[in-house]
TrEMBL record:
Protein family according to the UniProt entry: Belongs to the binding-protein-dependent transport system permease family. CysTW subfamily.
The entry's keywords: Cell membrane, Membrane, Phosphate transport, Transmembrane, Transmembrane helix, Transport
SUPFAM superfamilies linked to this entry: MetI-like (SSF161098)
PANTHER family: PHOSPHATE TRANSPORT SYSTEM PERMEASE PROTEIN PSTA
Organism of derivation: Streptomyces litchfieldiae
Annotated ranges, domain ABC transmembrane type-1: 138-347
Domain of life according to the entry: Bacteria
Free-text function comment from the UniProt entry: Part of the binding-protein-dependent transport system for phosphate; probably responsible for the translocation of the substrate across the membrane.
Name of the gene this protein is made from: pstA
Higher taxonomy: Bacteria, Bacillati, Actinomycetota, Actinomycetes, Kitasatosporales
NCBIfam families cross-referenced by the UniProt entry: 3a0107s02c
Record protein name field: Phosphate transport system permease protein PstA
Record field: transmembrane: 35-63, 84-108, 137-163, 175-198, 204-225, 257-278, 329-351
Stored InterPro entries: MetI-like, MetI-like_sf, Phosphate_PstA, Phosphate_transprt_permease
Length: 360
């Protein structure tokens, strides 16, 4: 009587030949091409009149469903789940880009109407209808933000150096706590604080550009402290110990070893901090106000800034010249976006130029 053959009685080599160790795989460009197809389909629906949000959601859901089903048949359950998670992450990223793209498109479409030489060479002095420009607001923005950076960067950098290199105990913990609190305060609170401070010395109704610089520095300092602190933490302790082993004083080690090593990250953080505050409106509306003429003295009377100029042009537009006011407001917003983009590009360039050189 013969006994049935089990898998344990078979030769191991025969078992390996019978069991597939690998599954098939999708073509290399399957996922990108599928995504591109659904993006184009969503764009076609948008051009046909559907809403941008609906088109984006339909494209994301369709891409995820198709790539998961396809991978399930070809790559098995494990490969399909990996494709599914990748598709969800990719779709979420693309959906997050939709508001940004919409904002940029809207600002460009409306801002190009007055984005000309007259806009950058003229002020609003004596202009009640068409014409005029934002020369006074552009220069005011650069002056106020520049002074704020001159005040914020040294204070923030020295605070970060103290916290990383010297700070211990309750004082360091208290400084860290207050930096965290300042990072989250609303910008309007900074404007009200600075106005109340200067009102004590100059009386009610005081407005000048330096007040706006102080308000912006209140917002900039915690950002500079946080970014510089993180960069200083990345400096290896071995570099400090090697310097101390050569009998180099601590202050000289910080200046000659620590800061040059972290220079790229610190410069990037400072540039991004400037980009963060250059478009603030609420604190400048309270502390600086607005003027129609050129005023480049930050210690004398009101100044204009691009953010406040855009707000006032939009909010105070009269009925007989509404379109002209709206065009100037959109052009000022477009100018601010271009300045912020330029600052981000400068931050990338600084990070690449001053990054520590490593051996390949």
């Amino acid at each position: 009587m013969s006994t049935p053959t089990t898998s344990l009685d078979k030769d191991p080599a025969a078992l390996l030949n019978e069991m597939p160790l690998t599954h098939g795989s999708l073509p290399r460009r399957a996922a990108p091409l599928t995504l591109l197809a659904f993006v184009l389909a969503g764009g076609a629906l948008y051009l046909a009149g559907a809403g941008a949000a609906l088109c984006g959601i339909l494209a994301a859901v369709g891409y995820t469903a198709v790539i998961y089903t396809w991978a399930r048949r070809v790559e098995g359950a494990r490969g399909a789940f990996d494709r599914f998670v990748t598709a969800v992450v990719t779709s979420a990223f693309l959906l997050a880009l939709l508001p940004l793209i919409s904002v940029i498109q809207t600002v460009i479409d409306n801002g190009l109407e007055r984005f000309d030489a007259d806009f950058f060479n003229n002020s609003m002095l004596g202009v009640i209808d068409e014409g005029g420009g934002a020369h006074h607001a552009l220069m005011g923005t650069l002056i106020i933000t520049g002074i704020a950076a001159l005040m914020s960067v040294p204070i923030g950098l020295m605070t970060a150096i103290y916290l990383i290199e010297y700070g211990r105990g309750r004082l360091a913990r208290a400084i860290t706590f207050f930096v965290d609190v300042m990072t989250g305060i609303p910008s309007i609170v900074a404007g009200l604080f600075v106005y109340a401070l200067f009102e004590l010395f100059y009386g009610p109704g005081i407005r000048m550009g330096f007040m706006g610089s102080v308000a912006l520095s209140v917002l900039m300092i915690p950002v500079v402290v946080r970014s510089a602190e993180e960069m200083l933490k990345l400096v290896p302790n071995e570099l400090r110990e090697a310097s101390y082993a050569l009998a180099v004083p601590k202050w000289r080690t910080i200046v000659k070893v620590v800061l040059p090593t972290a220079l790229a990250g610190i410069a990037t953080g400072v540039t991004l901090a400037i980009a963060r505050v250059i478009g603030e409106t609420a604190p400048l509306l309270i502390t600086v106000g607005i003027t129609r003429a050129d005023n480049f003295d930050p210690f004398d009377d009101r100044m204009a800034t691009l953010s406040v100029f855009s707000y006032t042009q939009y909010s105070t537009a009269p009925g007989f010249a509404r379109e002209a006011f709206y065009d100037r407001a959109w052009s000022a917003a477009l100018t601010l976006i271009l300045i912020v983009m330029a600052l981000n590009l400068v931050a990338r360039l600084i990070a690449r130029l001053f990054a520590p050189k490593t051996r390949s």
